[in-house]
Amino acid sequence: MNSxxxxxxxxxxxxxxxxxxxxxxxxxxxxxxxxxxxxxxxxKVATRLxxxxxxxxxxxxxxxxxxxxxxxxxxxxxxGLCNKxxxxxxxxxxxxxxxxxxxxxxxxxxxxxxxxxIDYGFVGxxxxxxxxxxxxxxxxxxxxxxxxxxxxxxxxLLNTNADTIAQSLATGLAHxxxxxxxxxxxxxxxxxxxxxxxxxxxxxxxxxxQELKTKNIIxxxxxxxxxxxxxxxxxxxxxxxxxxxxxxxxxxxxxxYISI
Length: 260
Ligand SMILES: Nc1ncnc2c1ncn2[C@@H]1O[C@H](COP(=O)(O)OP(=O)(O)O)[C@@H](O)[C@H]1O
Ligand SMILES: CC(=O)N[C@@H](CCC(=O)OP(=O)(O)O)C(=O)O
Known about the structure:
eight-stranded mixed β-sheet; globular; 14 strands; Carbamate kinase
């Protein structure tokens, strides 16, 4: 194992949607030393665009049901609008970055979801990542910026939850780097009371997660996020945090540390 540190940071739709928060985050991300990868969602932006086009949004357990029309919306939004805006801003900050879908460099291979009670449509579950290619990008000084689109290597693009993309990259690179994974969103961390920013759960393990899920204290988009965290820990990722984007600049701010 290479002891070199790799920081994988994921930002969600609410961060991307607020230009002030996004700019401030990208400045901090640019200042971050060492190997790094940015993963972004953009669910909120896709929902808004779909709405403008008269396409209904259906979310099940925090995941988007993606028919052909919705797939087009998500590809345009995530791989186009969001990804290219972020990459352009990073270039302006002096970070040599490259925007990628999973099809680019065959970097993230996935499989259309089957065997689910719900027909999610064109939603992909990650099978593998092209870790050696991603490593070489990092080694030539490039910062990859991944969006939430993958492919099946048969010519089909698939919509994949951005939290899962971050987790798959983290686990797929854990044999090559000392990986830390940070999920940034609009709140300070996982909260005991969603309306109280001061109720951050500082440490969350799997049993406590199950308890809070049963009590509906953790729900919606937080469910796939945490499921991804526990999977990543089992597969060798060393450090996982859920936090506000401010954590990048100030690691001592309250946040949620995930453990098995
Ligand atoms: N206990 C909780 N603490 C914090 N957020 C929670 C909790 N339970 C549910 N959530 C919801 O999860 C959302 C984060 O998930 P999601 O929207 O998928 O994140 P992202 O912005 O990273 O895409 C929060 O905006 C919040 O509405
Ligand atoms: C299958 C699935 O749910 N894909 C997500 C991908 C984007 C995403 O994850 O965006 P956030 O991080 O902003 O939520 C979606 O289309 O909403």
